[in-house]
Here is the input.
Amino acid sequence: MIFFLLNILLGVGIIFFSMYIDLDEREARSKALTTMILAFAVEVFFVISAFIALFWKNTQLMNITCRLMQFGYSLFAVSFMIFIIQYPNFEFRKIYNVIRYFFLAVAVALIWQFDSVSLSAQTGINVVSSPSFIFDIKWYTLYRIIYVMFIPTLSVLIIIANASRKILKIYKQQLLTIIIGMIFSVGIYFLLKLASAYYALYIMLFPYCLAVLLAMCYVAMRSSAMVDFNTIKSWLLKFLLDFAIPSLFAGFLFAILLPFRTSFPAFFWGAFIIGSCLLVILQRVIAYKVRKMQFSQGSNYEIYLEEKISAFDYNEEPEKLINDFVALMKQHTETMHVELLFHDDLGEIKSIHHSEGKESPAISTKASVIDSLSGSNRNVISKALAASRHEFSTYRDELLELFNSLNSELIILLREGRHLFGIISLGIKRHGNLFSDYDHRALNNLFSYLFLFGFYLKNIANQSVIGTVDREIQMSSQIIRSIQDNVDRINVPSIDVGYISQSARSLGGDFIDFIRLTDTRYMMIMGDVSGKGLNASMSMVILKSIIHTLLAETADFKELIEKVNYFIKYNLPRGTFFAGVFALFDFSANIMYYANCGLPVLFLYTEAYNNVIEIQGDGKVLGFAKKVGNMIKVKTIKLNPGDIVLACTDGLLDSVSLRGELYGKDRVQQLILDNKTFDSARMVQFVYDDLLQFVSKEVQDDVTIVSLRILKPQA
Here is the structure.
């Protein structure tokens, strides 16, 4: 009964496996693997049917189901052979169907010649057949020669032949995976043969051999990156430290204490438990120490690379930053060369630095492959991934040609929305290794730092931003300040706007931006990007730029905020968040739509009541949660002539005087009432001057204040 249940379990497993796997039926390789899955499912069904015939003790039904079981195996064997023949391109050719139907017809003819086929707990599978006309070999023996020996051997020879051809290494790794699957499958089969000498029905678990081979074929098909020597070394070290060595010492401890088990059981169990606990603690300490050593790091460089690249000082000269970045990438990823390519004013993505001095040809931004990559949802793509994943099938040839032109094995795409502004290209690894799944995960996890570095280079390379400002000012500070001041001035006669944005140091993370949508509709984004100094300013510049890009492709106000949150969460350095407000003004009707995203205060002065109230409501900062759709509340307020809206960041409210007094909201409200007759520019200046007088020293945090007034109609 247990063998029957195990086959039932396998049948259920293949159903769940079919539901789990991610196969695209439009792709030829998916169809080839699906054919194998169906053949395996048919075989499992026939095996279960044979067990049912055994339980019912129906000799005639058993003879039929056991023959069908033999046919099910031949169906799987032939499907596997065709799968291997088609590999790796899986092109459809009529000859493959001819081969398939020929071998299946031969299998039916041979199985038909069997005198009888039965199943019993004493003898297992018992096939009775008479000699054939081919050298008097029995029909069943001839069947086994063709389907158990010849077809698997031919499949192995085809794999070896494919591996010896000039194909990508990822394909060779996939073929090796399939061979390993065949070895395990054969090994399990021989174990079942040995076990069947003690109980014959063990041999009825042979579908598990096919399941192992099928699973390894699936693993091979889905593998899209190389497993290099360092990765294997790291896995081996982890196995030794976490399992093998502790198990050996635990067994040794058990053997020492075993003589006391009968005479002093309490001592035996107490000593063994205490010894095991000490062993676990010792193992943890040693494993931690060993993994900190350079030789044990293997390919696990993410933590070390993040530590170095996050400490970049963007006040340094660009040339030094580039050299440091290239050195880090070469050291940790083991790439042979690094190339940086960026979009220029001529509509080309051009090399600005190659670690070996071999600049690649410029790439036109109008090239179809660039357009396809701009719309891809991947930031890191290796050559092996491009060659093996269905998502690249529509432009695979162009993409592989791009890799070849760059002499690259992995590219990191730098985009603002759908605009691809740069590429970081990494060449082949030392010792001929290719980029592994770990490399993809690590570089994706570090993408925010790579994006920050790339965005910085893109902007300092744009000399037109510099203009005529004094060349002695540091380039990075100058560019960031010019970008910070680049806003769409509200040019509506009935609106008076003034703002001030001051950093505690030369640069900071506060910013304000006005974006013109139509003549009477404007958007305002104001807030504080976490951090201080140049790093915060760089994040601010990136965020400001991406908002413009996202706005061009997003019509919904709330959806825009959700996309901005996603960008901050996954593209800016870890721990970056934005506390501010998004406001949309329709000046034709004097309506303000706004969503508070952590802005500490938003004041409204209403002339009708001569009063200042807070209208910001609750808000969640952006960059912490993955999804903020349910947290964002878009509010609407009608503004009347004479009304004033004033917003400020926490740098104003949280400032502290020498006596330890907090500046607070009440002061701001009183200043609005006291200065309501002045224009907006003078009002925000009065507030800032009052802050300076209050603190009696330099401000310690970035401060941004904006005031917007609805003017009364001229008489």
